[in-house]
TrEMBL record:
It is an enzyme of class 2 (transferase). It catalyses: L-seryl-[protein] + ATP = O-phospho-L-seryl-[protein] + ADP + H(+); L-threonyl-[protein] + ATP = O-phospho-L-threonyl-[protein] + ADP + H(+). Residues 32-156 form the Bulb-type lectin domain. The keyword S-adenosyl-L-methionine does not apply. One of its GO terms (molecular function) is carbohydrate binding. This is Receptor-like serine/threonine-protein kinase. One of its GO terms (cellular component) is plasma membrane. It is found in: Cell membrane. Residues 505-779 form the Protein kinase domain. It comes from Hibiscus syriacus. GO terms for biological process: recognition of pollen. It is a single-pass type I membrane protein. The chain crosses the membrane at residues 455-476.
Length: 823
C-alpha cells in the first residue's frame, strides 16, 4: 500500500511553508498543514492540508462547552468531523488549551497544562527535536521526523486510530499477532463524540468478514465472507453492482503475515465520501452532494434500523416504521430524557411505578403485580426455559422471582426473563415471526386509566356549571377552528395548523403513507378537496423551509401535482396539494383480480405524461429538480386518469432524513439507479433509470421482481431485454389482462425506451426530453444493448439476480440515431 509514502511534490510544498513561517520569525503560523516543534495550536487556529481538503483544530460539539481537537472537511459547508483526538476528554477553554509537539509527541494540554491526550509513541531523544505533525489531503494526520525529508518514517498516524469514520485510503486492520481488531466506534450521541456502543471491526475468528458489534461483545451484523472474485461480501450483494460498474470505488482485502486489512478508495479522487458508524448503530456510506449542500446516505447496514442490537436500550421497543424508532414499553419512561431526545437510546427505560415486590421485599404475595400482553413482537434474548404445562403456571413461575420481568408462553413452551429486556422489537402488520410477551408491571399501572375516568365522573357530578363552561368553551374552540383563513404567500396559501386539523377532520381520513409522511384527505370551506401531507423529520429552519416550499410552489405543470399551500408552525410542517381522485398508479397497475386493467392507450398516455412532467422538472424550471423517488406510488391520476408526478422537490426539504427514507426504500425496491449505491454524484439520469423501471411495470402490469407461477423469482426487464434484442414476441410481454389488445409497434417502442433508460452507464441513458420525443414518435429509437447487469431486490429476502447475456459494446451507441419524423 502506498498511503504511507509521502508524495515528494507535496512534501516540498510543506517544507516551503515551514520555511516561510520560520523566516517570518513568528512563533505561530497557521496557513500551513504542519505543526512543528516550538509551534502550538490554540483557540481558533487551525492547520489545513496542502490541497485544502481537510482542516484540523478545536471544534465544539453540542450545546455544552465541550471542545475537541479534530479534523474535518474544509470544503464541505456542513461541518463534518472525521477524526477526533480527545473524544473522551473534552476541554472547555480553547484559548488556554494547546496542541503541540512535546518530547517527540503531539500532545494536547488542557487549561491546567495537564496532558490529556498524546500520540504516545515512545521516542528516542535523537528525533524529538525535529518531529512534526502534518495533516495530509486524505485526512491522515501523521507524526514524523521532519528533518529526514522523504525517507522519514511515520511515527504515528491518525489512520491507525480512527474514531467513527473509515476514510478512503485508510485500513481497517486485524493484527494477527495479538488477535486484536482495530475498531471504528460510533459517537455516543449526535452531540457527544465519546465512544458509543456500536463498533465496526474485522471478525477476529474469520478475518475476511467485517462485523458490527454491540458494546464490544455482541455481534449483530456480519458482512459474510469476502469474495475476491466478485470483489464483494457474500451478504452485501449490492457491492457486486458497484464492482461490476467499476467506475466508482475499489474495495480491497489483504491478508499478510502479521496483519490482514480492508481498504477502499474512490477512483475519482475528488469524490467526497466516507464510511462511518452512525450513532444509530448503522454503518453508512455517505457522499457529499455539492449542489444540494447535503450528505446523502448511499448505503447503510443493517438495512433495517431495528436490526441494530438493543438500539432502544433496556425496556425499550424498536419499531421499524416509527419515528423515532424507539419508544419505551408501556409503564416505562426514558431513563435520561435528555439523551433520549438526542437519539441516544442506550440508557433505555425505567419503570414508572416500582413493582410491589421491589417496594417491600417482605411482602408475601408479589402476586399483586400484573402482566401486560404485548403481541406481535420479536422476543428479547436471554430467556430461561421453564418446564411448566400451562400459561397460568408460567405466569406464576415468573411471579416467584422479584427480578423476573416478563414471560412468554406459546408452542415453544414457557420462558421467563430474569433480566432487563433488551432488543425487543415491535412488528407492525402481519408477520409470522411475531410472538406475544407478557411484561410485568405494578398493578397500579393497570388502574391508572380507570382512575382518570373516576376524576372525570367526579367532575361531572361536582358541578353542572363547570360542565356548562366546558361545553361553551368547546363550542367556542370548535367555531374558531371552523374558520379557515389562510393567508397568501407568493403563489401559495399559508394555513394555520388548526385550519388543516379542521379541514381534515382531525386527520381522520388517511390516503396513504410514504417516506415523507402520511397524507390525509381534507375539504376546504370552498368545498375543494385537498390532500394534506404531514411531513416528518424536517431538519430545516423556518426561513429555509419557507424558501424551499415557495420554490416548489412555483413549479407548475399539467403533469405535476400542484402544491396549493403549506403550514409551518414550529415542528408542524404540512403541505397542501390538490386531491387526485384516482389515487396512485400502482393501485391501477397491480390489481389483485385483474378485473379492470388499464387500457393500453391510457398506459401509453400515462407513460408519456409522466415523461413530460419529469422533463419539466429536469430541464424547464429554473433550477433542475431531481425527483429521486420515481415509482408508481408517486404517479397520481386525476379524474381523467391524467398522470401527475407527486412528491417532487421534497428531497431538499427533508434533508438528512431523506437519506434514510431512500436507504429504507432501496432495500425493498428495484427502482434505484446503480449510481445511488456506488457513491457518485446523482444526476437527473437517476430519475431516468427509475422511470425506465416503471415503464416495464406499466407494460406488464406487475411488479418487476414478482414471483411467477412456478414460484421462481423472475425479473421482467430481463425478459424484455431478451425479447427486443432477439426479435422475440413482444406481445407476450404485455399484461395478460389486456388480451394482446395493443399495437405491437407501441409496445416495442416503450420496451426499447425502458431498456435504454436502465443502462448501467448513465451517459447511455436518454434524457427525459428524448424519452418524450421517442414516445411522441418524433424520434426513432435503436435496439438498445442489454444492460450489463440488472440488480434485483426481489421481495424482502433481498435476493439478487444478475443476468449475464453477452452484450454488444454500448460505448458509441445512443438511443436515437435520427430525428426522422416518423408520423
Ligand atoms: C525550539 O526551541 C528551542 C528552545 O527554545 C530551541 O533550542 C530549538 O532550536 C527550537 N527548534 C526549532 C525547530 O525552532
Ligand atoms: C479568531 O479569534 C480572534 C480573536 O478571538 C478573532 O479576532 C478572529 O477573527 C478569529 N478568527 C476566525 C477565523 O474566526
Ligand atoms: C485538566 O486535566 C486534569 C486531568 O484530567 C484535570 O484534573 C483538570 O481538572 C483539568 N483541568 C481543567 C481546567 O479542566
Ligand atoms: C500513554 O500510554 C500509557 C501506557 O502505554 C498510558 O498509561 C498513558 O495514559 C498514555 N497517555 C496518554 C496521554 O494517552
Ligand atoms: C489468536 O487466535 C488464534 C486462533 O483463534 C489462536 O490460535 C492464537 O493463539 C491466538 N493468539 C493470541 C496471541 O491470542
Ligand atoms: C457493556 O458492557 C459492560 C461490561 O463489559 C457493562 O458493564 C455495561 O453495562 C454494558 N453496557 C450496556 C449498555 O449494557
Ligand atoms: C476496472 O478498472 C480497473 C482499473 O481502472 C481495470 O484494471 C479493470 O480491468 C476494470 N475491471 C473491469 C471489470 O472493467
Ligand atoms: C511480521 O512480524 C515479524 C516480527 O515482528 C517481522 O519479523 C516480520 O518482518 C513481519 N512481517 C511483515 C510482512 O511485516
Ligand atoms: C470527478 O468528480 C468531480 C466532482 O464530482 C467531477 O467534476 C469530475 O468530472 C469527476 N472526474 C471524472 C474523471 O469522472
Ligand atoms: C424531550 O423532548 C420532549 C418532546 O419534544 C420535550 O417535551 C421534553 O421537554 C424534552 N426533554 C428534555 C430533557 O430535553
Ligand atoms: C434473580 O433472583 C433470583 C432469586 O431471587 C436469583 O437467584 C437470581 O440470581 C437473580 N437473577 C438475576 C439475573 O439477578
Amino acid at each position: 500500500m502506498k498511503i504511507e509514502n509521502i508524495n515528494p511534490r507535496w512534501f516540498k510544498f510543506s517544507v516551503l511553508f515551514l520555511f516561510m513561517c520560520l523566516s517570518h520569525e513568528s512563533h505561530v503560523c497557521f496557513a500551513v498543514d504542519t505543526i512543528s516543534t516550538n509551534q502550538s495550536l490554540s483557540g481558533n487556529q487551525t492547520i489545513v492540508s496542502a490541497g485544502g481538503v481537510f482542516e484540523l483544530g478545536f471544534f465544539r460539539s453540542g450545546n455544552s462547552f465541550n471542545y475537541y481537537i479534530g479534523t474535518w472537511y474544509k470544503k464541505v459547508s456542513r461541518f463534518t468531523p472525521v477524526w477526533i483526538a480527545n473524544r473522551e476528554k473534552p476541554v472547555h477553554d480553547i484559548y488556554s488549551s494547546v496542541l503541540k509537539i512535546s518530547d517527540g509527541n503531539l500532545v494536547l494540554f488542557n487549561e491546567s497544562r495537564v496532558p490529556i491526550w498524546s500520540t504516545n509513541v515512545s521516542s528516542g531523544p535523537a528525533i524529538s527535536s525535529s518531529v512534526v505533525a502534518v495533516l495530509l489531503d486524505d485526512g491522515n494526520l501523521v507524526l514524523r521526523d521532519g528533518l529526514n525529508s522523504i525517507s522519514s518514517t511515520i511515527l504515528w498516524q491518525s489512520f491507525d486510530h480512527p474514531t467513527d469514520t473509515w476514510l478512503p485510503g485508510s485500513k481497517l486492520r486485524f493484527n494477527k499477532r495479538t488477535n486484536q481488531s482495530q475498531r471504528i466506534i460510533s459517537w455516543r450521541s449526535h452531540d457527544d463524540p465519546a465512544p458509543g456502543l456500536y463498533s465496526l471491526e474485522i471478525d477476529p475468528v474469520e478475518a475476511n468478514h467485517i462485523v458490527m458489534v454491540w458494546n464490544r461483545s455482541r455481534p449483530y451484523w456480519t458482512s459474510g465472507a469476502w469474495d475476491q472474485q466478485t470483489m464483494s461480501f457474500s451478504l452485501v450483494p449490492e457491492m457486486r453492482m458497484a464492482s461490476l460498474s467499476n467506475s466508482t470505488y475499489n474495495f480491497i482485502y489483504f491478508s499478510e503475515e502479521n496483519e490482514s486489512y480492508f481498504l477502499y478508495y474512490f477512483y475519482n479522487s475528488s469524490t467526497t465520501a466516507k464510511l462511518f458508524m452512525d450513532v444509530s448503530g448503522q454503518l453508512q456510506q455517505m457522499s457529499w452532494l455539492e449542489d444540494m449542500e447535503q450528505w446523502m446516505v448511499q448505503f447503510s447496514q443493517p438495512r433495517q434500523q431495528c436490526g441494530v442490537y438493543a438500539l432502544c436500550g433496556a425496556f425499550g421497543s424498536c419499531n421499524e416504521i416509527g419515528l423515532p424508532f424507539c419508544s419505551c414499553l408501556r409503564g416505562f419512561h426514558p431513563k435520561s430524557e435528555t439523551n433520549w431526545n438526542l437519539s441516544d437510546f442506550s440508557d433505555g427505560c425505567e419503570r414508572t411505578t416500582r413493582l410491589q415486590c421491589e417496594e417491600d421485599p417482605n411482602f408475601v404475595t408479589g402476586k399483586t403485580d400484573k402482566f401486560l400482553e404485548s403481541p406481535n413482537v420479536k422476543l428479547p434474548e436471554r430467556a430461561q426455559a421453564m418446564s411448566v404445562g400451562s400459561m397460568l403456571e408460567c405466569e406464576s413461575a415468573c411471579l416467584e422471582y422479584c427480578n423476573c420481568t416478563a414471560y412468554a408462553y406459546d408452542s415453544d413452551g414457557c420462558r421467563i426473563w430474569m433480566t432487563e429486556l433488551l432488543d425487543l422489537q415491535q412488528y407492525s402488520g402481519d408477520t409470522s415471526d411475531g410472538r406475544t410477551i407478557y411484561i410485568r408491571l405494578a398493578a397500579s399501572e393497570f388502574r391508572s386509566s380507570s382512575n382518570n375516568n373516576g376524576i372525570i365522573i367526579g367532575a361531572v357530578a361536582g358541578g353542572v356549571g363547570l360542565v356548562l363552561c366546558l361545553v361553551i368553551f368547546a363550542i367556542l374552540r370548535w367555531r374558531r377552528r371552523r374558520m379557515i383563513n389562510p393567508t397568501v404567500e407568493g403563489s401559495l396559501l399559508a394555513f394555520g395548523y388548526r385550519d388543516l386539523q379542521s379541514a381534515t377532520k382531525n386527520f381522520s381520513e388517511k390516503l396513504g403513507g410514504g417516506g415523507f409522511g402520511s397524507v390525509f384527505k381534507g375539504r376546504l370551506p370552498d368545498s375543494s378537496i385537498i390532500a394534506v401531507k404531514q411531513l416528518e423529520g424536517i431538519s430545516q429552519g423556518e426561513k429555509q423551509f419557507r424558501s424551499e416550499v415557495s420554490t416548489i410552489g412555483t413549479v407548475q405543470h399539467v403533469n405535476l401535482v400542484r402544491l396549493r399551500g403549506f403550514c409551518s408552525e414550529g415542528m408542524r410542517k404540512l403541505l397542501v396539494y390538490d386531491y387526485m381522485p384516482n389515487g396512485s398508479l400502482d393501485a391501477h397497475l397491480f390489481l389483485e383480480d385483474n378485473s379492470k386493467p388499464l387500457a393500453w392507450k391510457t398506459r401509453y398516455q400515462i407513460a408519456l405524461g409522466t415523461a413530460r412532467g419529469l422533463t419539466y422538472l429536469h430541464e424547464k424550471c429554473r433550477d433542475c429538480i431531481i425527483h429521486c423517488d420515481i415509482k408508481p406510488e408517486n404517479i397520481l391520476l386525476d379524474a381523467e386518469l391524467c398522470p401527475k408526478v407527486a412528491d417532487f422537490g421534497l428531497a431538499k426539504l427533508i434533508g438528512r432524513e431523506f437519506s434514510r427514507v431512500l436507504t429504507t426504500m432501496r432495500g425493498t425496491r428495484g427502482y434505484i439507479a446503480p449510481e445511488w449505491i456506488s457513491g457518485v454524484a446523482i444526476t437527473a439520469k437517476a430519475d431516468v433509470y427509475s422511470y425506465g423501471m416503471m415503464l416495464f411495470e406499466i407494460v406488464s402490469g406487475r411488479r418487476n421482481s414478482e414471483q411467477n407461477e412456478e414460484g421462481k423469482v423472475g425479473f421482467f426487464p430481463t425478459s424484455v431485454a431478451r425479447a427486443i434484442t432477439q426479435d422475440g414476441d413482444v406481445l407476450s410481454l404485455l399484461d395478460p389482462g389486456l388480451n394482446e389488445d395493443a399495437p405491437v409497434d407501441e409496445i416495442s417502442r416503450i420496451c426499447k425506451v425502458a431498456c435504454w433508460c436502465v443502462q448501467d452507464d448513465e451517459t447511455h441513458r436518454p434524457s427525459m426530453g428524448q424519452v418524450v420525443q421517442i414516445l411522441e414518435g418524433v424520434l426513432d429509437v435503436n435496439v438498445p444493448p442489454v444492460p450489463r447487469s440488472l440488480l434485483v431486490l426481489a421481495n424482502n429476502t433481498e435476493h439478487i439476480i444478475f443476468f449475464t447475456e453477452s452484450s454488444s459494446s454500448p460505448s458509441s451507441q445512443t438511443p436515437s440515431n435520427s430525428s426522422n419524423a416518423s408520423s
